[in-house]
Amino acid sequence: MRSMTKFQSRLLLAFSIAGVLGLLGCNSRTDKSEGTVILSISDFNGLPTQVSVNSASAAGGVAVGSITIQNIPKNPSLPTSALMNVEFASYEVIFSRGDTGTRLPPPLVRQIFGIAPVNGTNQYDNLPILTTAQLDVPPLSDLQFVNGGFDKETGAQTVVLNIRLRFFGRTLSGDEVVTGPFDAFTVDFVP
Predict the structure, then answer these.
(1) Which strand (E) or helix (H) includes residue 93?
(2) CATH number belonging to domain 34-190
């Protein structure tokens, strides 16, 4: 009977430790950003897959049809308040090459306005991701007909760019928040 008691006490201790570790695991997050909310780009449409540089220059740039940003509480089991609403301040668009070239357009950083309520969303329509400032410098300016219509670095008539977006804001309580980089699309730029 005594060995059964030792076994039961060890079993009880093991279950207790597993329970504590389980509870700690549920409260542990990999997100180490400031504040009580996480911003996530939750939906988008109208992403271009191929853009004519000459047409885009005439139109004044390239835009995404719509992007929706979701404001998610870090701990959904705790109460929320309007102090967790996020006011947006700016966004950035950064480019990398998806082909053998190395030259890049300069990043686009713009101020924006809008609020995403906690557990809610904010949508931006026709959001510029490329302006004439990016279209008028190499490598994209090389693709303009007046400049020959090909990338002078690679000799190709297509420049492949990977496009990353991030949105920056602040909760009403003052915590700085930012979306993770959104690396979801690649665009082929042609003359």
Answers:
(1) strand 86-97
(2) 2.60.40
